[in-house]
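We emphasize that the prediction below concerns an isolated chain of 109 residues; any contacts that depend on oligomerization or on bound cofactors are therefore not represented. The input was used exactly as deposited, without trimming of termini.
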Amino acid sequence: MSLKVMGVAIAGLMTSMMAGAAAPMPTLQQYYPGEGIYCMGRDACYPIAYQREVYSDAALTNLIGSASDGCSQSGDMVWITTPQLPTGYEVKTPMWVCSPMGPYLPLDW
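Result of the prediction step, given as a token string:
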């Protein structure tokens, strides 16, 4: 009896392996691995540029500064230049992704 159960288990495993091999590969999805980073694939992660507004109060009624991040590049290396703003309650709105090919606006934003 245990030999019959073992045979059924092996047959089920083989069927699932063949079904998995026949399934199409999923497309690489865009995702956020952490704050300020956007990935367009396994090895294509780039920094996000933000529009920044700083308020003096928690109710966000008194704007004391605003500026946008900039993109800098040297070869394939890309980074963000963040402006100097006064200290306060900061609101960040994503603008674009800084990629080696230039600013990129993701379709899912």
